[in-house]
Design brief:
Elements (H helix, E strand, L loop, with lengths): L4 H15 L5 H16 L7 H16 L6 H22 L5 H14 L13 H9 L8 H13 L2 E5 L5 H15 L4 E6 L10 H6 L7 E4 L14 H9 L2 E5 L1 H7 L6 E6 L3 H7 L6 E5 L5
Parallel strand pairs: 1-2, 1-4, 2-3, 4-5
Antiparallel strand pairs: 5-6
């Protein structure tokens, strides 16, 4: 997905906000000029997550290591693990196989709220409210029916994970997928290096995701799925998949347009996405790559 003017403005604003409290104005000005240069010299098909990855390299040269989201990752993993038994119980209240899968998809989509890339703060109260009404949210009927048909014959799925905390809801969805489609091998792809509060392999281990599915890192620290930076293992898993389930805005931004059979599942959390999908903030998207222009 090519970066929009709105995203370029947002990237600059976030970098100024990031360093606003620092005292050395000359250093801050030099940094922002270099950030502007990264944006100005970027290729037409550069994505926001990739540009943030490039900008972070500049940040390290000026200011040292990036902020550590370890505390937030552990906090939301622990919170969602506490909620897991209740969420699974509610998922299984579905009256049939179709409804149970829909419930699991809705919870996995709703948990995409736990994103420190789209927001500076993730509010537990807001998360609780969103989870409370998750099962009442609608999934696009045509997309859901198509997914079910394809899962019946799929041999392999690549599941592109996103944030910590969220991966507990992903685990529940994957559990349901494995029960309903036992012929399908699922490979979960997490980040290969730290990126905000995105999940890496150790986070997947922490929540027990590695106990129920194959989990691999993608080989890089972009907060998305940047195909030209993927490890050979991750790229092979994506290319071999009959169905790809992609979680989160960052994955959408980096992989949309590649032509693969991808189902996107995420919440709209910023102005560009609400405009792009014509829906309110924190409403959910469930769409196939082939239906997007």
């Amino acid at each position: 997905m090519n970066i929009s003017a709105m995203c370029i403005r947002c990237l600059m604003d976030k970098q100024e906000e990031r360093i606003r409290g620092m005292e050395n104005e000359d250093k801050k000005s030099a940094y922002l000029k270099e950030v502007a240069g990264v944006l100005a010299s970027s290729a037409d098909d550069a994505t926001a997550p990739y540009l943030v990855y490039r900008i972070n390299m500049v940040y390290r040269r000026y200011f040292g290591e990036l902020p550590d989201y370890g505390k937030e990752k552990r906090e939301f993993n622990a919170l969602m693990l506490e909620l897991e038994p209740d969420l699974e119980k509610k998922i299984r209240l579905g009256s049939n196989k179709e409804k149970i899968l829909a419930n699991a998809l809705n919870y996995a989509r709703t948990a995409n709220y736990i994103d420190y890339g789209a927001a500076n703060h993730v509010e537990k109260e807001t998360l609780a409210e969103l989870l409370e009404r998750a099962m009442g949210e609608a999934l696009d009927a045509d997309t859901f029916q198509r997914l079910q048909r394809e899962l019946e014959t799929a041999g392999r799925m690549a599941y592109l994970a996103d944030n910590c905390g969220e991966i507990v809801a992903d685990k529940l969805l994957i559990k349901i997928l494995k029960e309903q489609y036992p012929q399908m091998h699922i490979t979960v792809i997490v980040r290969g290096m730290p990126a905000l509060n995105d999940a890496v392999f150790e986070d997947a281990q922490e929540v027990g995701l590695t106990d129920i599915a194959e989990v691999i890192g993608n080989g890089n620290g972009v907060a998305g799925t940047q195909l030209d930076l993927l490890s050979g293992e991750a790229l092979a898993a994506i290319r071999a998949a009959d169905v790809i389930l992609s979680k989160g805005q960052g994955n959408f931004e980096t992989i949309h347009g590649c032509g693969l059979n991808i189902y996107y599942l995420f919440l709209c959390k910023c102005e560009w996405f609400t405009k792009r999908f014509k829906m309110e903030r924190l409403k959910g998207v469930f769409v196939n790559e082939r239906d997007l222009t």
